[in-house]
Design a protein that fits this description.
This protein is an all-alpha fold and about 300 residues long. The protein has one domain. Helix content is about 75%, strand content about 0%. It has 14 helices and no strands. Helix 3 packs across helix 10, helix 3 crosses helix 11 and helix 5 crosses helix 10. The longest helix is centred in the middle third of the chain and has 29 residues. It is globular.
């Protein structure tokens, strides 16, 4: 792969994982524009562990308090007795939809759904939904007022991010804003909700990366992960500060412009919808079907 490519992909992952503009989309688009093959879902999930580490470090105090409240609540027979214990349960409940659907749709996520047409449509579609959420949002509710229904709804919104280009932070922000939460509270819950889902994805894909025979070295993975961690820390701090006083309009405009540009490049033939994905996703065993065969089936 090369360390330069690993650094670039690490920066892209760290910055775009937490902004509502889709890290998966940019990890798919940037290599295509630079003439590199697609990094693949397995490598993407691996360097996501760097951004998971960024969330854990940044929110370490919050995570410890939630874990302690959750354990003490169970031991005392009052599992939802405090606001922090309830929030811990909401994070767990909100993780179930993306876990179940992620396993069910794993093949499609790693192949046909990585088409740039899908990504472009998701970029524009989520932008419109986020705009609608901003328009109807009351921006009054805090995480202390969260309910089980909120946890389930935002959990299913997070699952929508399995479609490349949607953005996990974008879908959860959209759901939380639509339910009336303040922007900074919506972002904080989105960050906390990311920990179990992205950790599980990275660990699950680790064995596939090792066995796949893809052209990555241990140094590629380590460098990409470390760079994603450092850039992720900066992105979290910036976004929380930004959303205290501003709306998500800049991200909405960016998504629409990038989605429109992608459609233009695809329709003009300057970009190929699945170029690069074939090389990464094609199975190593000669008896297994290629990506083209899988997609056509």
């Amino acid at each position: 792969m090369g360390l330069l490519r690993a650094i670039v992909l690490g920066i892209v992952q760290g910055v775009t994982e937490f902004l509502p503009i889709s890290s998966t989309a940019h990890l798919r688009i940037v290599p295509e524009l630079l003439g590199w093959p697609d990094a693949g879902a397995a490598y993407t999930a691996m360097i996501q562990l760097g951004t998971v580490a960024a969330v854990i470090v940044f929110f370490w105090g919050d995570l410890v308090r939630l874990a302690r409240a959750w354990v003490f609540g169970l031991l005392q027979g009052q599992p939802t007795g405090t606001a922090e214990a309830r929030l811990a349960w909401f994070v767990l409940v909100g993780t179930v939809p993306i876990g179940v659907l992620g396993l069910a749709l794993k093949h499609n996520i790693e192949t046909s759904l990585r088409s740039l047409y899908v990504i472009a449509a998701a970029m524009v579609g989520l932008a419109l939904l986020l705009l609608l959420a901003e328009r109807i949002a009351s921006h009054r509710r805090t995480l202390a007022e969260m309910t089980w229904t909120d946890g389930v709804v935002i959990g299913f919104c997070q699952a929508v991010a399995l479609i490349p280009g949607s953005s996990r932070s974008g879908t959860t922000l959209t759901g939380a804003l639509g339910l009336g939460f303040r922007r900074v509270d919506a972002a904080r819950y989105s960050f906390l909700l990311s920990v179990p889902a992205t950790t599980a994805a990275g660990l699950f894909e680790m064995r596939h990366l090792v066995r796949s025979g893809e052209p990555f070295t241990g140094a590629d993975v380590v460098v990409g992960t470390v760079v994603a961690f450092l850039s992720g820390i900066l992105a979290i701090a910036w976004l929380l500060r930004y959303l205290r006083t501003r709306s998500t309009l800049v991200f909405i405009v960016y998504r629409v412009l990038l989605g429109g540009l992608l459609f233009a490049l695809l329709l003009s033939g300057r970009l190929s919808p699945l170029a690069g994905v074939e090389n990464v996703s094609r199975p190593a065993h000669p008896d297994q079907p290629s990506l083209n065969k899988q997609v056509s089936d």
